[in-house]
Specification:
By secondary structure, the chain is of the alpha+beta class. The chain contains 15 helices and 18 strands.
Length: about 525
């Protein structure tokens, strides 16, 4: 476990330091049609998931009751479809209007990934670069006084990953939704207080995403609200999504409440003005029915493949949104709802959070909280599932229940992550390698090994290890299927009468790929 935790730390540090220096100029992609995408081995998974619906319903109902939610709505997305929804309580307590999956809730900071997606779409179109200084698009930023003389100028990437050096601004930022563009520029003109120099630390900033909204407006030539509606919502069938609650039909609008002094107190809804600047960080309003379309699009980016790429942005850009760019946490004592302790490492992507646990599970998520509302969506790309939940209580914590639901679903349905089929070249090299074992006769003339192989693995040593292990194993009964780690690395097992042998190998970047690394061991 200690070694695994160390690997998590190293991986997170690497991710926080790595930058995608993708050119803004679109270039045609050549691809290998023989690439094999990951698949689900269990063809009956949907039937098993359906059996868990009643358990999911009961978990949300109990959570809503125990946390004094006036209303709650939730939805489960599986393999690109919203397969189950549920709701309890009221959108309007006084009028007793029941919550449904089409009720419209303010989703707060869940808005951020839409702003990030808009930025990446503009990048893909060659209209900006993520490493551009933000002042190129917001000239008022050029006169910022940075905390140190050696501070870099804030870039678009800094803003996307909460690395601009601004202080964490919850709940102050929640009260800025009604500010207009003029207010934002005046705010910048009075100078911004920094908590860190840009680029050295993660600190959650609503201000950073307000500035990204301004950049979308500047580059696209239309309000960011209109750009996102035209280029993201409409292509995904999100017809009722909006930023301004005044646009919502009264019988569909969820009112927000605060539980205080053992009663619900209605919160004043915040407008997103016509020239609003802060809505890019948290003003979006949506329903479970339509948000499920957005989640399905994110899940469709996995696994990488050769299918038609006709979404609002490229699938590769969606995967880029999911990448852990800035490390922000390590919890050695994280405890799942069932009580098992499983360390996790966390990072921030582009408008999204990333979590990997000690079992290798990866979660992509973002929560939202405003006076009167709490929400979260969480997907597991490797499992093809996602959950979203909205509640109309101030800062309702939806993260814990969503994690519990996903963890419970995986257990009840015995879900397994997608498996990568071995590539043709892995299978070929496996067959050729098995024929050489254990004697390694004429191996050096076989043409299947890279030039480094025999200098790194002397032939006499190779023969000795293989013969010794084959002697322990006895007669080889079966050569088990190849288990691919990627297109050029994998392992397989030789089942013997007395013992089993595991063989791992890695292929070189040559074409055709050759064996460059090899390990053989007895399975204990």
């Amino acid at each position: 476990m200690k070694h695994f935790i160390l690997l998590l730390i190293i991986a997170a540090f690497f991710f926080s330091c790595t930058e995608n220096r993708q050119s803004a100029k679109p270039v045609a992609t050549l691809f290998d049609t023989s690439y094999k995408s990951a698949v689900f081995a269990d063809t009956g998974r949907m039937e098993k998931i359906r059996l868990a619906f009643s358990v999911i319903d009961s978990l949300y109902k109990k959570y809503a009751d125990s946390n004094h939610f006036p209303g709650i709505a939730f939805g489960l997305v599986v393999d690109g479809k919203l397969v189950h929804t549920g709701s309890y309580g009221y959108t309007d307590i006084d009028k007793k209007i029941p919550v449904t999956s089409s009720s419209l809730f303010r989703v707060a900071s869940m808005s951020k990934s839409f702003t990030a997606m808009a930025i990446l779409k503009l990048r893909d179109e060659g209209k900006l670069n993520l490493d551009d200084p933000a002042y190129l698009y917001i000239p008022e930023l050029k006169n910022l006084k940075y905390p140190t003389a050696d501070a870099p100028h804030i870039t678009i990437r800094h803003l996307l990953t909460h690395g601009a050096g601004f202080p964490e601004d919850n709940p102050w930022g929640d009260r800025q939704l009604a500010d207009d563009d003029k207010d934002l520029m005046e705010f910048i003109g009075k100078q911004i207080s920094f908590s860190n120099p840009p680029g050295i630390a993660y600190e959650y900033s609503n201000l950073g995403f307000a500035l990204l909204g301004k950049i979308v407006t500047k580059v696209s030539g239309m309000r960011y609200q209109d750009y996102i509606k035209k280029n993201i919502w409409e292509p995904l069938g999100m017809k009722t999504a909006t930023y301004e609650y005044g646009d919502v039909a009264p019988d569909k609008l969820a009112h927000g409440y605060r539980w205080l002094n053992e009663k619900w107190n209605e919160e004043q809804l915040l407008h997103d003005t016509k020239d609003g600047s802060w809505g890019a960080m948290g003003a979006m309003i949506s329903s479970i029915d339509e948000f499920g379309n957005y989640m399905a699009f994110h899940l469709s980016a996995w696994p990488p493949g050769n299918a038609k790429d006709d979404g609002p942005i490229k699938r590769s850009s969606v995967r880029e949104m999911h990448h852990p760019w800035r490390f922000n946490g390590l919890n050695l004592n994280y405890t799942y709802p069932n009580g098992r302790v499983c360390p996790i490492v966390t990072a921030y992507c582009y408008g999204l959070g990333w979590t990997r646990d000690c079992e290798g599970r990866v979660y992509i998520a973002h929560s939202g909280g405003l006076p009167g509302f709490g929400s979260q969506w969480r997907i597991m790309p490797d499992y093809g599932i996602g959950i979203v939940a909205f509640a109309n209580r101030t800062y309702a914590p939806m993260g814990p229940i969503n994690m519990q639901v996903l963890d419970t679903l995986i257990k009840l349905a015995d879900l397994q992550p997608m498996q990568l089929p071995p590539s043709n070249i892995l299978e070929q090299r496996k067959t050729e390698l098995v024929k050489l074992l254990p004697d390694w006769n004429n191996a050096q003339q076989s043409g299947i090994f890279a030039e480094n192989f025999f200098p790194d693995y002397p032939i006499d040593t190779l023969k000795k290890y293989a013969k010794d292990l084959y002697a322990k194993a006895g007669k080889i009964i079966e050569v088990k299927p190849m288990k691919a780690e990627n297109q050029l690395r994998g392992s397989f097992i030789l089942q013997g009468e007395k013992a089993n042998i595991e063989i791992q190998f890695t292929l070189s970047p040559e074409n055709p790929a050759l064996i460059q690394e090899y390990h053989i061991k007895e399975l204990k």
